[in-house]
């Protein structure tokens, strides 16, 4: 497969699903997303997601099963979501405006980044 892989982590705890509010770019600022980022050359999806969540949230995670379908983004990028389990640390917003725990019933009320919106049914199922 060619193109850039972007990974997102669905961290679910007794408090719900962790979502992050974007700071940038301007057109996405204030919108909510699953935290994550680009997989670097030589990394697996799991390695890239664990690194991104360490950088963005200050936590260590175990990456689990895929969640939902790939989302094709502009500029030859593919977005993938994975279930993750926090193994160390407490999430802090290092790279986001805010973090929030949400329940399944709140998923439809969030102002999501467009790319993550398609995962709402999968996220709702994972939260039940």
TrEMBL record:
InterPro entries: MutT-like, Nudix_hydrolase, NUDIX_hydrolase-like_dom_sf, NUDIX_hydrolase_CS, NUDIX_hydrolase_dom. Its EC number is 3.6.1.55. Pfam families: NUDIX (PF00293). Keywords: DNA damage, DNA repair, DNA replication, Hydrolase, Magnesium, Metal-binding, Mutator protein. It catalyses: 8-oxo-dGTP + H2O = 8-oxo-dGMP + diphosphate + H(+). Its cofactor is Mg(2+). CDD domains: NUDIX_MutT_NudA_like (cd03425). One of its GO terms (molecular function) is 8-oxo-dGDP phosphatase activity. GO terms for biological process: DNA repair; DNA replication. It comes from the Bacteria. Residues 2-128 form the Nudix hydrolase domain. Belongs to the Nudix hydrolase family. This is 8-oxo-dGTP diphosphatase. It comes from Mycobacterium adipatum. The lineage of its organism: Bacteria, Bacillati, Actinomycetota, Actinomycetes, Mycobacteriales.
